[in-house]
Amino acid sequence: MIKEKDGKRYFFRFTLNQRFQHITMASCVITLILTGMPLKFKQAFWAPYLYNLFGGIHVAPIVHKVAGSTLLLLFAYHLIYVLVTISNNYITPLKQKGQLTAGNLIKTLINLPIVPNIKDLEDIRDLLKYLLYLSDKPPEGAQFTWKEKFDYWAPFWGIVIIGSSGLIMWHKELVTRFLPGLVINFALIAHSDEALLAMLFLFIWHFYNVHLSPSVFPIGTVFLTGYLSEEQMAEEHYQQYREVMTAAGLEDQMLPLHGTRPQKGAEEDMPVTAEDSVPDFAGEAKTTDN
Amino acid sequence: MTLKLILKFIGGWGIVILGFTLFLPVGATAADIGNCLLCHKYPGLSRVDEEGKFRLLYVNEDIFHQSVHSKIQCEGCHADVKKIPHDPVKKVDCFIQCHVIEPSSETKFSHKDVQSFLEASVHAKVDEYGNPKKFSEDMPTCLDCHDNPLYRPLSFFKTVRPGISETAAGRCRVCHKKDEFIYRFYNHITTRLHKIRNPRNVAEVCARCHDDPEIVKRHELDTLAAYSYGETFHGKAAFFLSERVPDCLDCHVNRGQSVHQMLSSANPNSITHKNNKDMICSNLDCHPKATPGFSAYKVHPEFNPGQSPAQYYFTVFFLVLAGGTLLPLMGIMGLDLIRRLFPHAALKRRKKP
């Protein structure tokens, strides 16, 4: 879980399989955006240039369909991957213990680390209080923060909506044997407007969190290496950071929670957590906080 | 030295004649019997007419010779010009007989038949009883849709591409001796095998009236037709110059007829009538597997609660979803950036446990 290199600690986050899935999805999504948005914004000055870069009206739609099909195949693979992972990591152990009941299964699924929970709502509340200067303590993120769950479930919904509407438009003759023609109108609206939302969500929100935020600028590398730096781990996943460091017997070397560095005149109020009481690392944290 | 010898040889007059011929318009035309290009060859020739409109009167001879009317003499259409310099000319009347002989009937050629087609079409100025329609002045005449179009020849050698197939022209030369005739005939036939305008240009022509909100309102039409067409995949592909997608005429003109015979969708004989619409999409070249359900697709929806309420509110749902998702998240991003300026500040601090 913890890897040390050049005197720095790195925390394992994503397996090679997960990184492969992510980078495949990212490549497909970027290709889909580049070959789809010129059609949506055909009047824009850049639209013909961008579209011609992908072969124009006779080739770009084929590129779009290839990328879309690849993404849908990846989505199917991901669903299988999720089911197999849940089966191996949660259902099989339950079965071995003889505790596989419907109630336990539902409880297990609800408690999966990627499923939104009450803590996420509390974290959002705490984050807003922190951002509005009403509190000096940011939320302590778990393995997956509410932002990451948003980043996971938003594209999940997006692929379902955009993928199904894309398939409807692609196979419109077949679909309209069973459904009225108006379904093509709705498919076009859903495909186009949900894609715009997805694009803006990814390039504004996701990119800010993983690449453009002052903590990670100019690029976050966890999607390539699978490891997160200690500073980012402490900033974004403090709850998990504490668990991992404690498990490794390194609790005395933990960084303080982001934004809680003791400062002059405030020492009386601080610290409230064990990690804040480690003055040796307060100075180091200062460089990473800003 | 050599130049001096040549000059001596041809003499001063030779220089004058040589200079004159150099500046003659290239390929001075046989069609220009009235010598109209004497004046109209100058690119700047123009005037402001009585209505205050700027009129460019320049005729580019090279371009004119690529046009479908290149064999027609100027006075064939501008029949009121009898002397030079001439008085202000009238608008061209496309229904006059011109000097070209129509080869199949060997009579003087005329577009007059178009007039009878047009009078029975949705674009007629009079109704079926011969009474003037409301706002009949809005109805198009020839020049509202047509200019003097250029040939768009096609080559069919191995692949279809724009241009002339010399392989085909070589076969023509076996019987026909004049290249001028061969190329003109080739141009005429292959231009007619497809359309003189691409789908985007066709939509632009129709848009002159059908995207004019005043005209659309006056005639109680239910859409800005070219605009709503432009919002479909067909319209977007046409915008990017695809010629494989349908334009306005492909759906609105009965098969086997001309655009001048277009009928209202309320007319039971029209292909756009609700009982006949199925035949539009299932064209062999389009969607041969299309069912009646497929043809029920709304081709001209607008973001307008009156015209397409279901589509309107469905779009609004996505707009609200986008705004409701992105704006709060962007707000958090902005607050996050501000918070980083003063990471340790807070109105309320945690108390000691």
Describe it for me?
The complex is a heterodimer of chains A (290) and B (353). Chain A starts with a strand and ends with a helix. By secondary structure, chain A is mainly α. In chain A, 65% of the residues lie in helices and 4% in strands. Chain A has helices at residues 16-40, 47-53, 56-96, 102-110, 118-131, 146-170, 172-175, 182-212, 222-225, 230-236, 238-247, 279-289; strands at 2-5, 8-12, 227-229. In chain B, the strands form three sheets. In chain B, strands 1-2 form a two-stranded antiparallel ribbon. Classes of the chains: A mainly alpha (290), B mainly alpha (353). At the A-B interface, helix 3, helix 5, helix 6, helix 7 and helix 8 of A face helix 12, helix 15 and helix 16 of B.
Please outline what is shown here:
The complex is a heterodimer of chains A (290) and B (353). Chain A has 290 residues and is mostly helical. Chain A has helices spanning 16-40, 47-53, 56-96, 102-110, 118-131, 146-170, 172-175, 182-212, 222-225, 230-236, 238-247, 279-289, and strands at 2-5, 8-12, 227-229.
